[in-house]
Design brief:
3 domains, 36% strand, alpha+beta, Lipocalin, 563 residues, 4-stranded antiparallel β-sheet, binds heme D, disordered N terminus, 5-stranded antiparallel β-sheet, Cytochrome Bc1 Complex, Chain D, domain 2, Methanol Dehydrogenase, Chain A
């Protein structure tokens, strides 16, 4: 924390210093030929440079800073500042270049050092953020409709599994920079299919039956993958927006009807809206904008991006987390004509990101990561329960539900901003919704992205993929869920290059799969498979097709919300 404060101070000081220099430059550049985009400081970009910068910003920066650059997980990047963070034009090119190259302790990646951005690209981006943000293009229901492709109609699909494989133990593995999803047989560890799902797929979710995977890409493209043919295949696709991170299916079956696998919802980052599709064909059915006022009463935000979405098993509801406004929407999908008027909109805390169910599936816990809080929603009663202070930049993924002998059921989150795992009690009683324990992770600094457990396991697994220290990036930490003691630190074998990220159990809950997320042009990425009892490496999946593996989703565990 101290370090972070120091850095911010430095950040501001460097800004002031470079501001003076910029002013000097200003006068000398007055006569320079006008270019298309020019800031008050004299920074300018040609149309071609602008296009390139927009693309890089979308791929690497918009997720945290927002397309309109008003800030979310990361600070605002506005030429004139926003009162909280320095104006980018005051920071100046050199200071911004240094930040983009070296990263920041709170989670800003070292894009330059990692070689993801070249020095020229770093300079380009340093200039880009001193210019006003370009306008966000429109994307309407007509555009969604035009993008829809039904590749295999339902009547032409197989009616039973055509494979002898144990498809319920398939893993869908995101091959991020290849724009693909690999389907891997969890029993034999063989590659079953590689599917071209589109640019930087982010996550997969399954249908309730487990037969289908839905993938969502950073380009807003949703893909329906049928796992029943001998070789899994894409049967439909559509584009919900320019930029997206979440997809979920309808799961409710009860007195209000059977909605299992009837609809899916895709949450749009840019433009900010959600789209409901027919789950079996991906025919677009409804688009609802998510813009609104911060916490329902403050500043109006057009960029109000949909972060995580989960589906209730107890009610016909999706929990839709609107990042910039800090509103949790409980979207009742039982009558699509009244979907907006039947939505409960609950003000919580700004910059909602990722989250998951407690073990009962009635309470949803979501990180408001930029304000270091976890929000708890009582979904059946449609109300905010409480907002809990945790560590710096909580990042639970979907979190992990463990049963601890002393405290009962606990839901766990890690943090990007500090090396801490926070355990929140969820059972009714005096401790409910309190952080009853913190684990301080070894090695200092933050960088944890995901935690994972399984009902049959006594272990909690945690990565450090965003650590600034290379040895921590390549380590996985396994803790005892009763004593909270670190049992083992697992290191990625040297032959594989890249960060260890995201864990997933197999269907039986006795293996843990970990990605080694290498570079796009190298074939040294891998998926490591550990025995959950012995904590020994059992097998490594590798191959020239395994490009930049990140998230992994086991069919059975995803369909049953096991985490
Ligand atoms: Fe993710 C989940 C957003 C960067 C891998 N990520 C999520 C969710 C959101 C989100 C909102 C929750 C989805 C849900 O549950 O419905 N992620 C973002 C970003 O905005 C961010 C910070 C920057 C960006 O530009 O995308 C970002 N995420 C990353 C990565 O760099 C990761 C590590 C690698 C990758 O593939 O891009 C990454 N995010 C994941 C994974 C999940 C995820 C694997 C699902 C976790 C799970 O177990 O459910």
């Amino acid at each position: 924390m101290k370090k972070l404060k120091l850095f911010l101070l430095l950040f501001a000081l460097v800004g002031l210093f470079s501001c003076k220099n910029e002013k000097k430059e200003d006068t000398s550049k007055k006569t320079e030929e006008a270019k298309v985009e020019k800031a008050a400081t004299g920074v300018s970009l040609t149309p071609a440079e602008m296009e390139k910068a927009k693309k890089i910003f979308f791929n690497t920066c918009a997720g945290c800073h927002g397309t309109t650059r008003k800030g979310a997980t990361g600070p605002s990047l506005l030429p004139d500042g926003d009162g909280k963070f320095p104006a980018t034009k005051d920071l100046g090119t050199e200071a911004i270049k240094s930040i983009i190259t070296n990263g920041m302790p709170g989670g800003m990646p070292d894009w330059g050092k990692q070689g993801i951005l070249s020095p020229q690209e770093v300079e380009l981006m340093a200039k880009f953020v001193q210019l006003p943000p370009p306008p966000v293009p429109k994307y309407t229901m007509d555009d969604v409709m035009k993008s829809w492709k039904l590749i295999v109609p339902v009547k032409d699909r197989v009616t039973k599994p055509m494979t002898k494989r144990n498809w319920r133990n398939y893993f869908g593995v995101v091959l991020r920079d290849a724009g693909q999803v690999a389907i891997i047989d969890g029993d034999t560890k063989e590659k079953v299919a590689i599917l071209n799902t589109g640019f930087a797929v982010h996550i997969l979710r399954t249908s309730v039956s487990g037969r289908y995977f839905f993938s969502i890409g950073r380009d807003g493209k949703v893909t329906l993958i049928d796992l029943w043919p001998e070789t899994p295949q894409i049967v439909a696709e559509a584009k919900a927006s320019f930029d997206a991170r979440s997809v979920e299916v309808s799961k409710y079956h009860g007195p209000k009807g059977d909605f299992r696998d009837k609809y899916i919802i895709v949450g749009g980052y840019t433009p900010s809206h959600y789209v409901v599709f027919d789950a079996m064909t991906l025919k677009p059915l409804k688009l609802v904008k998510t813009d609104g006022k911060v916490l329902g009463k403050g500043e109006y935000r057009d960029e109000a991006r949909v972060a995580s979405i989960v589906a209730s098993h107890h009610d016909p509801l999706w929990v839709v987390n609107v990042k910039e406004t800090g509103m949790v929407w409980l979207v009742d999908y039982s009558d699509l004509d009244k979907i907006d008027e039947n939505t409960a909109k609950i003000p919580t805390a700004q910059f909602l990101h990722d989250g998951g169910w407690d073990h009962t599936g009635k309470y949803f816990l979501v990180a408001a990561n930029a304000v270091n809080k976890i929000v708890v929603i009582d979904v059946p009663n449609k109300k905010l329960v409480t907002i809990i202070d945790v560590g710096t930049k909580p990042h639970p993924g979907r979190g992990a539900n463990i049963y601890n002998k002393k405290y009962g059921w606990l839901w766990v989150t890690g943090h990007i901003g500090e090396g801490k795992l926070a355990f929140i009690a969820t059972d009714p009683g005096p401790n409910q919704w309190k952080v009853v324990h913190n684990i301080v992770m070894e090695g200092g600094g933050g960088g944890n992205l995901f935690v994972k457990t399984h009902p049959k396991s006594k272990h909690l697994w945690a990565d450090r993929a965003l650590s600034t220290q290379e040895d921590l990036q390549r380590s996985i930490f396994v803790y005892d869920i009763n004593t909270f003691k670190l049992l083992k630190t697992l290191h990625v074998p040297d032959k594989y290059k890249g960060r260890a990220v995201h864990m997933e159990y197999n269907k039986n809950g006795n293996e843990v799969w970990v990605s080694v997320w290498g570079k796009k042009n190298e074939t040294t990425s891998a998926v490591l498979i550990y025995d959950d009892k012995t904590l020994k490496l059992k097998q490594a999946i590798e191959g020239d097709w395994l490009i930049t593996p990140t998230g992994k989703f086991n069919v059975y565990n995803t369909a049953h919300d096991i985490y």
